[in-house]
Amino acid sequence: MSESVSGGGVPGAGPLGGDSPVLYEVEGCVAHVTLDSPSNRNAISPALIDSLLEAFQAAEENAQVRSVRLSHTGNTFCAGADLKATGTSVEAQRHMGEKMAQLLLAMLEHPKPIVAVVDGHVRAGGMGIIAAADSVFAGPAATFGLSEVRIGVTPALVSAVVLPRMTQRSASRWFIGGETFSAHEALEVGFITEVCSESEGDKSASGVAGQLEQAFAKSAPRAMAESKKLVNAPVVSKLVAERDALVELSCRMFMSEEARAGVQAFQKRQPAPWDVS
Predict the structure, then answer these.
(1) What average pLDDT does the chain have?
(2) Whole-number pLDDT of residue 3
(3) Is the pLDDT of residue 8 over 80?
(4) What are phi and psi of 260, to 5 degrees?
(5) If pLDDT is split at 50, 70 and 90, which confidence band does 197 have?
(6) Does residue 63 contact residue 29 with C-beta atoms inside 8 Å?
(7) Is 5 contained in some domain?
(8) Where residue 164 sits, what CATH number does that domain have?
(9) How does strand 194-195 pair with strand 114-118?
(10) Number of domains in the chain
């Protein structure tokens, strides 16, 4: 049984809409939530967050669904914030930060396991989405990066979920240096669950995720939900406790002179004014 929604209604939730940047489909006992805005590399906007929240709610309310698979179209899972859609005022930045916090909490507190399947690039805010998933399977094309410092901002809000998912030394390198790192490096520090060597078939990220989804299908729903609470409790507590301060830090950094110069240079594909490499 397959229930597909891109422009129609979602049972138990409102319609995602025909122009939604997210696709939602239920196959068997798995809800497939797909980031589907490859033209802007699945960048995070208020519309993307709202669509993800709606899809996750639909999966929660559907008793048929035992787990959620989060994947993407195109060669980028998520490029981070959509700099054109987030707005330039303090109020707009604060609103975006609050929406992002809402999304991360919704994922962490979702009663069903969320499995991320990544075979593309993950940058900046996209790292927070990956960190809020329960399992992450990466294909051969996957790369990761906390690139915020390259444009004069800080991975503030996502730090609450990313830092608990990697070692302190690796966080120091990648938070401060903004370097890109491979799926194998991400695995070594515990940020992802498994690196899959193939793009298709049983050994692909999608294939291995399917094997885990079969395990979920054999497990009691309430027991899984309570087990997930135990695992995620420290991360949830950290995010709730630090959310307001991190949103304000993010706002200050986005409104700084460095950020203005960095974003402008990024959009013009020019070196940032502080780049002395």
Answers:
(1) 93
(2) 52
(3) no
(4) -60, -45
(5) confident
(6) no
(7) no
(8) 3.90.226.10
(9) unpaired
(10) 1
> Does some domain include residue 277?
no
- In the chain, the N- to C-terminal Cα span, in Å, equals 55
Nearest alpha carbon to residue 126 among 216, 57, 200, 186: 186
Q: Estimate the crossing angle of helix 90-108 against helix 221-254, to 10 degrees.
A: 160
Dihedral sign of CA atoms 188, 171, 134, 55 in order: negative
Within 8 A by CB and 6+ apart from 248, the residues are 94
What confidence tens digit (pLDDT) does each residue in 237-272 have? 999 999 999 999 999 999 999 999 999 999 999 999
User: Does some domain include residue 9?
Assistant: no
Summarised one tens digit per residue, pLDDT across range 99-117 is 999 999 999 999 999 999 9
Q: Confirm whether 6 is domain-assigned.
A: no
Mean pLDDT of 1-5: 48
The rounded distance, in Å, linking the Cα atoms of 153 and 146 is 10
The DSSP H or E segment spanning 180 is strand 180-182
Dist. CA 229–CA 232, nearest whole Å: 5
pLDDT in tens, 198-241: 888 889 999 999 999 999 999 999 999 999 999 999 999 999 99
Domain extent at residue 232:
22-204+217-268
* Tokens, residue 23: 């696709």
Q: How far apart are CA 217 and CA 211, in angstroms?
A: 10
Cite the DSSP H helix spans in 136-167. 159-162
What is the pTM (predicted TM-score) of this model? 0.92
